[in-house]
């Protein structure tokens, strides 16, 4: 029986080549999703392709501390520092969610020196939403 020819692009062979070289991105979109348990900061280019992301969990916070404003500030600073190194100067900010990290993340973004074209709240709001559970009969 012949030996199978290994596929060139398979994951078992390890990484093929290195990561893409750092792209120069002059402007992008910062998406901040602040839930009660964590805060995610995602940086995309204008077309919406994810370039970098950070969260309170990846910054080393565990458990209940992930939902704190300080953790959100750290996650935002981490994402912005990387993007400023890649040449980002202008950004739009989309904030989603009810968490405590909303204001702290925005404050960190403002302090970073990136010019913000606008800040938009994109929290989903139900227009009457789901049907409530039926009344309790005792």
UniProtKB/TrEMBL annotation:
Give the matching Pfam families. Answer: Ribosomal_S11
Tell me where on the tree of life, at the top rank, the source sits: Eukaryota
Q: Which subcellular locations apply to this protein?
A: Plastid, Chloroplast
Which UniProt keyword terms apply here? Answer: Chloroplast, Plastid, Ribonucleoprotein, Ribosomal protein, RNA-binding, rRNA-binding
Q: Which InterPro entries match?
A: Ribosomal_uS11, Ribosomal_uS11_bac-type, Ribosomal_uS11_CS, Ribosomal_uS11_sf
- Whether Ribosomal protein counts among this entry's keywords is yes
- GO molecular function ontology, one term from the record: rRNA binding
Q: What processes does the entry annotate via GO biological process terms?
A: translation
Q: Give an example GO cellular component term for this record.
A: ribosome
- TM spans, by residue? none
Q: Mind telling me which PANTHER family this protein's record contains?
A: 40S RIBOSOMAL PROTEIN S14/30S RIBOSOMAL PROTEIN S11
Its assembly, as annotated, is:
Part of the 30S ribosomal subunit.
Family, similarity comment: Belongs to the universal ribosomal protein uS11 family.
The name this protein carries in UniProt is Small ribosomal subunit protein uS11c
Provide the species name: Phacellaria compressa
